[in-house]
Amino acid sequence: MSSTVPNLKVTIIQTNLYWEEPTANLAMLEEKVFGISEATDLIILPEMFNSGFTMNAAKIAEPMNLTTTRWMKQMAAQTGAVITGSFIVKEGGNYYNRLLWVEPSGEVDFYDKRHLFRMAKENDVFSGGNKRLIKTIKGWKVCPLICYDLRFPVWSRNVHLDYDLLIYVANWPKVRMYPWDSLLVARAIENQSYVVGVNRVGEDGNGFQYSGNSAVIDFTGKVFVREIDDEIISHHTLEKTPLDEFRQRFPAYLDADGFVLI
Questions:
Q1: Residue from 194, 195, 197 nearest 240 by CA
Q2: Would you write out the chain's pLDDT as a tens digit for each of its 262 residues?
Q3: Fewer Cβ in 10 A, N or C end of the chain?
Q4: What's the first-to-final CA gap in the chain, in angstroms?
């Protein structure tokens, strides 16, 4: 079965981040984005890309459609690609670890991180989301999630093949890289979907080290690439036909257990 859906070109930006310095991070990332020399459809940034994984939300948070949102709109318009990543948003008196999906047209959608990392007291500072986001780009259905969400497979369950590509943006420390590497592969296998995980590198303001390990994984669990330690911009082309053929040949999703989130 040959797909009529074109290939999807994905760009990963794995980078160090300036601690709690949005202006410096946006300037640094702008330089990296403008340095992308080949055509791409989707640019993926890490979790809290303008600050690092900080709980100092009162200092860093901004409302929607202010500096960082407008910056993302500018990047999308000038590159002609969708750009996505999360930052801290204040809305209605609450703080959210919010991923924005910004299209070249200026259209913006968002996903609020559902699973808040209690070991860092994220759940004491932020409000959690209650709905997934599924977006379509060039005929591909994409589900972007955030970091700690990776540990909870029910939330990412690909019921009725809701998506073709599952994304995790993260600030996942080096000390817990084995779960990161393993669970990204598991999510790809169980959901019969491509998975892209984008993590940061360097050291944050709390002294945590990050090795990146950003990865692109196919629907069988094969790791196409895993970027370790280095700041890097990498480009990957995802093909729809092999995914469609595999799902037709091995339709395990038809035997998935039904459930309802309560």
A1: 194
A2: 567 899 999 999 999 999 999 999 999 999 999 999 999 999 999 999 999 999 999 999 999 999 999 999 999 999 999 999 999 999 999 999 999 999 999 999 999 999 999 999 999 999 999 999 999 999 999 999 999 999 999 999 999 999 999 999 999 999 999 999 999 999 999 999 999 999 999 999 999 999 999 999 999 999 999 999 999 999 999 999 999 999 999 999 999 998 877 6
A3: C
A4: 38
- Choosing from 73, 122, 135, 147, which is the catalytic residue? 147
What number of helices (H) and strands (E) belong to the chain?
A: 7, 13
Q: Is 143 a catalytic residue?
A: no
| Of 73, 103, 113, 122, catalytic | 113
- 3.60.110.10, 2.60.120.1200, 3.20.20.70, 3.20.20.190: which CATH number matches 8-252? 3.60.110.10
Its pTM stands at 0.97
Residue 186 to residue 62: CA distance in whole angstroms: 35
Spot the catalytic one: 47, 103, 122, 227: 47
- Per the annotation, the verdict on 121 as an active-site residue is no
